[in-house]
Amino acid sequence: xxxxxxxxxxxxxxxxxxxxxxxxxxxxxxxxxxxxxxxxxxxxxxxxxxxxxxxxxxxxxxxxxxxxxxxxxxxxxxxxxxxxxxxxxxxxxxxxxxxxxxxxxxxxxxxxxxxxxxxxxxxxxxxxxxxxxxxxxxxxxxxxxxxxxxxxxxxxxxxxxxxxxxxxxxxxxxxxxxxxxxxxxxxxxxxxxxxxxxxxxxxxxxxxxxxxxxxxxxxxxxxxxxxxxxxxxx
Length: 234
Fold this sequence. Notes:
Layout: H1 2-11, E1 17-20, E2 28-29, H2 47-58, E3 62-66, E4 71-72, H3 77-82, E5 87-89, E6 92-97, E7 100-105, H4 115-124, H5 127-156, H6 166-177, E8 182-185, E9 191-198, E10 201-208, E11 216-221, E12 225-230
Parallel strand pairs: 1-3, 2-4, 3-5, 7-8, 8-10
Antiparallel strand pairs: 6-7, 9-10, 11-12
């Protein structure tokens, strides 16, 4: 977290937009009493990041947040708790960058063969479940989420895998066939950059990787330059 905050400080003078592709925390639900005085220890470890995002917003940096599989019910969280107008995307978004048609998403729905996960996601991300989480409260919900997160990581993220999962590249190819020229995803935990020519069009797929291991991020510099790189302190 400290390295991430230093990274934001280093970059803030040249950032116009900050786009977060989800799973910034192990569990993040937009409780209305997220930092309640009654439960002061539940999420106070997240507070430095939110304060930093608030300061960036106050300096005129626009923030977009794509919900991942660890982020829930963020629609009004930033405005209610911190007075920030953050663009929240529950799924994906289509953008225009450098005149290119761009698809952006967290990426957890990239693999169509993961039927079990997709079913579980539909159950988890719906209004009824959100109401139950609200009733359970921050402390219990976070404990349950931690257990589920550990199980998910053991199943889908192999520490000994030294290459990016192929499903993400295949998903990007399908999007290129739909007419997108750039696809930007996260979720895989592996930074990746792939160039592909489709029907005479140069198409680019980027996966921003993760912060825990690679400290990787994607920089877009107008009018049309993309750079997948890593933050190295000093």
